[in-house]
Amino acid sequence: PIGRDPVSRIKMKAFDRIAEAQSDERVRQSLTHYSVKDYFENASLVEAKPVTGRTHQIRVHLAAIGHGLLGDVLYSRKSSLIERQALHAAGIAFIFDGILYEFAQEIPTDMQNLITHLRASCAPLT
Fold first, then answer.
1. In whole angstroms, what is the distance from residue 116 CA to residue 126 CA?
2. CB 54 within 8 A of CB 2
3. Rounded distance between C-alpha atoms, residue 43 and residue 25, angstroms
4. Residues 58, 55, 93, 99: what is their CA dihedral angle, to the nearest 10 degrees?
């Protein structure tokens, strides 16, 4: 479950217990499927697929399991390897008025450079 962080109003929070989440109607169930594509010494390349659409969902879920995004200053920490959060929407698909809309976007240069750097600087642990 994800809801507004009671301490920091600009953040969302993953709640550990269903009972805790059910006490506040603003906390809603959420689900993110993910798979690790590459393992590195201090990072991983992950494909995340949110099933629900909660605010900051991918960032909150990964931070909650101890694997915050590189460069995410709100839920993790700044990185010298990228000047923003290392998150990219490769594609999205949805149905609106009975019509399927699909959009795809290549990985931006800064993220590709990050992946190249991680691959070159440490051999994958696979």
1. 16
2. yes
3. 35
4. 160
